[in-house]
Specification:
The complex is a heterodimer of chains A (499) and B (493).
Chain A lengths: L4 H21 L7 H20 L7 E2 L12 E2 H28 L5 H18 L3 H19 L6 H32 L4 H10 L6 H17 L7 H9 L2 H26 L4 H24 L4 H22 L4 H29 L15 H4 L1 H15 L5 H15 L3 H27 L14 H18 L10 H14 L4
Antiparallel strand pairs in A: 1-2
Helix pairs in contact in A: 1-2, 1-4, 2-3, 3-4, 3-10, 3-13, 3-18, 3-19, 4-5, 4-10, 5-6, 5-10, 6-8, 6-9, 9-10, 9-12, 10-12, 10-13, 11-12, 11-17, 12-13, 12-16, 12-17, 13-15, 13-16, 13-18, 13-19, 15-17, 15-18, 16-17, 16-18
Chain B lengths: L4 H18 L4 H25 L7 E9 L4 E7 L1 H21 L6 H19 L3 H10 L1 H11 L4 H34 L6 H4 L7 H18 L9 H7 L2 H26 L1 H27 L4 H20 L4 H32 L10 H4 L1 H15 L5 H16 L1 H27 L14 H19 L2 H4 L3 H12 L5
Antiparallel strand pairs in B: 1-2
Helix pairs in contact in B: 1-2, 1-4, 2-3, 2-4, 3-4, 3-11, 3-14, 3-19, 4-5, 4-6, 4-11, 5-7, 6-7, 7-9, 7-10, 9-11, 10-11, 10-13, 11-13, 11-14, 12-13, 12-18, 13-14, 13-17, 14-16, 14-17, 14-19, 16-18, 16-19, 17-18, 17-19
Chain lengths: 499, 493
């Protein structure tokens, strides 16, 4: 082994230590939001740096195997997801600080909570054991519950927080039950051990494992707001402060898909056909219901929340394909997650930059004539909308392209067709925003902050990344483009099967 | 990376437009630079025209890997058929700019026009299906902007309508493209979306072929538009600004036809032959239906919209007539129609600019006020009607001969229906231009110098093509023979 195991754990540790440090710092008056943000970025950046050390290497390590009894696994796969989650944290801080400063709701603890949440997500994608994953999920969720309801004088926030708390805990309990059932049958909660057990006993009755697996699946379907567990998401997303919504809708989803992929690919490969029967219906209904919800929203935030359900549906399409073309569709999920992450983080980030004061409601109407006041911001917002809608020359198109190709390749043409129909409907609600921004002269958004400082720069970079990811690397050779992302995703996929 | 001539033709306008948008310069400078760019493009394409070999195959190929994982290539090429449309585009656009010169629109208008040009030429020259789809959709965005921002009337509704229609059509095509790609992968074990590769697929069942055939046809039918897919047309045309409607009618509609010949024909030759009778019938039906609809219009732009659709029906009948006459005629009519309709829309645009009206009942007696305008208008109109000596005549004659060869009945019907076009055009000319009425047309100015240059350059081509068609046809002949003999395997005569 090249490094000591500690190197692999440093990203996780750094975020964890950072969370504690911030918790201690936050009551001190001298540390304003700006300074705390810098400290947060420092810890996240530290983690990113150590995570990047392993970039491009195919590895799979159980750090301190005996001490931690193989509950954590560090491989290219988890490294890949760690990068996205950390980036999500960084972007949330960079874009959100402006919002937090304006809304006067922020207490320094929010950064601590954010880091705890990131910590939970990192633990989730690195866990190779069911209880660890449960604890990770709870750490991530509990921090989020508090972040949502942080502004306790706002009833909407408190309601969202409570709703998520009650339902989320219930989902957690279901998962716990699932883990217990699996343990009852296999005698282990370690993913690898469970996998071995299932493979070694092909003829036995696996009802307990299947039931347990289904229950765990339900928890995750709940967390990614797939049909029929999606009802909480609209109000919770709407109730949360914008940067928190952004963080939940994109980063948390990435983390959960990361873990789901690991479970499905490593563990429950055998039950995939069985699972697919249910998943196909879930996918179709998720797509249809999400599209239906999204059409009727008048607030951009709610529209993005509803469309996030639709994007879950697209991801599930690829999920269904995993059984027969594992590599391609796992890669397409990983790629799509990046695409969705960039586009939605950008859109939410832009919203939170504009709506720094909560007096400005962000409805479609508020965007009337936006391009005439803030042309560059409108252009960026337009790019994110195009990407979410999957229009060519954006990364969203390439993402959908892979997913639909995968669905057709596995013979699930019907899923591709439903996905395309959902795309078609999505054009309506995404283009409505573009139309409103560009086609009307007047505007009531006079108190929009000008393009200044770091947040717009970050959002602008994301907009460029969205375009770059859609056009790829044919313009400048040897510059990372679409193929680079795919290759990285493939490497991540391969690392799952080293052990 | 080496960049070929075709890439420059495609991307120069985009590059210029992005730079123009970013730089803080005035509208006038933007316009002049945009115009200069189109002139440069014109000369570049002219050099391609003269260096083009008389063969039926792709030339000036450019081939670079783009997304290797899925075998998607940046692959360009030009053959006789696309060369002709390329020349059409690059000639028409600068001439149109002369007409749009005085529009008091913002920078965005000119930038969008340039972006549309990139989308259009990119669509025309790409040989990879994903690349094609890429441009096909990208072409829509600036159109969306140009109608939505600079249009008139109920512009937002028509913008949304055309967007939803065309995207719906394109998505059907996207599924079909993906399906073909997957089938190719399953048969040959590698990914490719190259047209030349996809035509080699042998494992498609008949049902699959028929479904895919229609998947493509819907996308193209919406763009053309063919009969049941036309409902976006009248509103969009009458609410678009002059530049937008010009590009939509003169160029983008042709790309629908182009798509059929370029992709549907080689990919599904069997279905192409099998369904040809229906499309000939549909084309002729459209010819009559839209002709009659045009007769009833009060709004001149709407009338031209229908007249344009009527001629596109004619072109459709031509390309499905499965013989050299019909195909050549269709190719010829694509050019002729683009020039005549494009010219007419530009002329109506200036009239609307001066008078603020475009209803026939609000006009009259323009001939006295604006003689140049009247002459130009008459010339374009005669080409549409198909007067001998104009390119309209040559193309209509060829198509009618082709359709006649295909089916006597269809030939007779199509020959007679040319009268419909004649009647609405002459009626319009009489009521709106010639006869003096009580309406006040004193605001009407005659064409200025730039416009005269623009329209008479166009008219010169219209007449030259009418008198000496060979010079325009010989470059495309080998391509059409290649299509008919090698792909469709039908005899030449």
């Amino acid at each position: 082994m090249k490094y000591d195991d500690i190197i692999y754990l440093l990203p996780l540790l750094s975020v964890g230590v950072g969370a504690v440090v911030l918790m201690l710092l936050s009551p001190i008056k001298r540390f304003g939001i700006g300074k705390l943000a810098v400290v947060t970025i420092f810890f996240l950046g530290f983690a990113l740096f150590f995570n990047a050390l392993n970039y491009g290497v195919l590895y799979s390590v159980y750090p301190y195997k005996d001490l931690l009894s193989s509950m954590l696994i560090e491989d290219t796969f988890s490294g890949y997801f760690t990068t996205i989650i950390l980036a999500g944290g960084v972007i949330t801080v960079l874009v959100g600080t402006h919002y937090f400063e304006k809304s006067k709701m922020l207490r320094g603890e929010l950064f601590s909570l954010l880091l705890f949440s990131v910590f939970g997500m990192l633990l989730l994608v690195q866990s190779s054991e069911l209880f660890t994953s449960f604890i990770a999920l709870e750490i991530a969720s509990i921090s989020l519950y508090v972040m949502i309801g942080f502004q306790k004088n706002d009833l909407k926030r408190v309601e969202g927080s409570f709703r998520y708390l009650v339902l989320g805990s219930l989902a957690g309990v279901v998962m716990l039950l699932g883990i217990t059932l699996i343990y009852a049958r296999t005698g282990s909660t370690n993913l690898l051990a469970i996998g071995h057990y299932i493979n070694a006993h092909p003829d036995e009755n696996m009802l307990l494992v299947i039931t347990g697996g289904t229950l765990i699946m339900i928890t995750f379907l709940f967390k990614i707001s797939a049909f029929p567990f999606q009802n909480w998401s609209m109000d919770v997303y709407d109730g949360a402060p914008l940067p928190v919504t952004a963080f939940m809708a994109s980063t948390f989803k990435v983390a959960i898909f990361g873990f789901m992929l690991r479970i499905i690919l490593v563990d429950f490969q055998q039950f995939k056909p069985l699972l697919n029967h249910i998943l196909i219906y879930i996918t179709i209904l998720t797509l249809l219901y999400g599209s239906f919800l999204a059409i009727f929203q008048t607030s951009i935030k709610r529209m993005l929340a509803a469309s996030s359900i639709v994007h879950t549906g697209y991801l599930l399409i690829a999920f269904v394909s995993i059984g027969s073309i594992g590599e391609a569709s796992a890669t397409s999920i990983i790629f799509y997650l990046i695409a969705y992450f960039l586009s939605s983080m950008g859109a939410f980030g832009m919203l939170s930059y504009i709506a720094s004061d909560d007096h400005v409601r962000v409805t479609y109407e508020d965007f009337r004539g936006f391009s005439h006041i803030r042309p560059y911001m409108a252009a960026m917002m337009g790019i994110f909308m195009l990407s979410l809608a999957g229009i060519p020359s954006t990364i969203g198109f390439i993402g959908k392209f892979y997913i639909f190709v995968g669905a057709i390749e596995t013979g699930n043409t019907i899923l591709a067709v439903v996905g395309i129909l959902a795309t078609f409907v999505s054009v309506y609600y995404y283009f409505k925003l573009i139309a409103l921004m560009y086609f009307y002269p007047s505007s009531e958004m006079t108190n929009v902050p000008p393009l200044k400082g770091l947040p717009p720069l970050i959002i602008g970079l994301m907009a460029i990344a969205v375009i770059w990811g859609g056009i790829g690397n044919s313009i400048i050779s040897y510059f990372p483009g679409v193929d680079f992302l795919i290759d990285t995703a493939k490497l991540a996929f391969e690392s799952l099967f080293i052990h | 990376m080496d960049i070929g001539l075709l890439s420059i033709i495609i991307f120069l306008p985009l590059l210029v437009s992005v730079i123009l948008l970013i730089l803080p310069i005035s509208m006038k400078v933007t316009r002049n630079i945009a115009f200069a760019t189109t002139i440069v493009i014109f000369f570049l394409s002219l050099s391609i025209f003269f260096r083009f070999q008389l063969e039926g195959y792709m030339q000036f190929r450019e081939f670079h890997p783009w997304i290797k994982t899925y075998g998607i290539y940046y692959s360009l090429g030009v053959d006789g058929f696309s060369l002709m449309i390329l020349m059409l585009i690059t000639t028409l656009i600068p001439l149109a700019y002369l007409f749009l010169w005085k529009t008091k629109k913002a920078k965005g208008y000119w930038a969008s026009m340039l972006m549309i040009q990139t989308g259009v030429t990119g669509t025309l020259l790409s040989l990879d299906m994903v690349l094609f789809y890429f441009f096909w959709e990208a072409m829509l965005l600036p159109v969306f902007m140009i109608i939505g921002i600079y249009g008139t009337g109920n512009r937002i509704f028509s913008t949304i309508k055309i967007t939803i229609y065309t995207i719906m059509g394109s998505l059907f095509m996207l599924v079909s493209i993906l399906y073909l790609g997957v089938k190719f992968y399953q048969e040959f074990g590698i990914w490719s979306f190259q047209l030349s590769d996809l035509v080699q697929i042998t494992t498609l069942s008949n049902t699959e072929q028929v479904l895919l055939f229609f998947g493509f046809m819907i996308a193209f039918a919406v763009k053309i538009p063919l009969f049941p897919f036309h409902t976006w047309l009248p509103q969009t045309y009458s609410n678009s600004p002059t530049g937008g409607v010009f590009l939509l009618s003169a160029i983008m509609a042709k790309l629908g036809i182009y798509g059929i010949v370029r992709f549907v024909l080689p990919l599904f030759p069997k279905q192409y032959v099998e369904f040809a009778p229906y499309f000939v019938a549909l084309g002729i039906f459209g010819l009559i239906y839209f002709g009659i609809a045009a007769l009833m219009q009060q709004n001149i732009k709407r009338m031209f919209a229908y007249s344009s659709a009527s001629h596109l029906g004619f072109i459709t009948a031509g390309i499905f007539s499965l013989n050299a006459y019909g195909m050549m005629g269709a190719a010829f009519l694509i050019v002729a129609h683009a020039m005549a309709t494009g010219g007419l829309f530009l002329l109506v645009g200036t009239m609307e600019y001066d008078l603020g009206t475009r209803t026939i009942s609000g006009l009259g007696g323009i001939a006295k006020k604006a003689p140049y305008f009247t002459v130009a208008f008459a010339l374009m109109l005669l080409s549409i009607v198909g007067l001998p000596g104009t390119n309209g005549f040559v193309s209509e004659l060829l198509i009618i001969m082709g359709v006649f060869k295909y089916s006597h009945l269809a030939g007779v019907i199509s020959a007679i229906t040319v009268l419909v076009a004649a009647s609405f055009m002459f009626w319009l000319f009489q009521r709106a231009i010639l006869v003096k009425t009580d309406n006040d047309v004193s605001g009407m100015k005659d064409l200025d110098k730039k416009e005269i240059i623009g329209i008479f350059a166009l008219a010169a081509i219209v007449i030259a093509m009418g008198i000496y068609p060979h010079w325009f046809l010989y470059k495309i002949e080998p391509t059409i023979q290649h299509y008919l003999v090698d792909i469709l395997k039908v005899g030449l005569h």
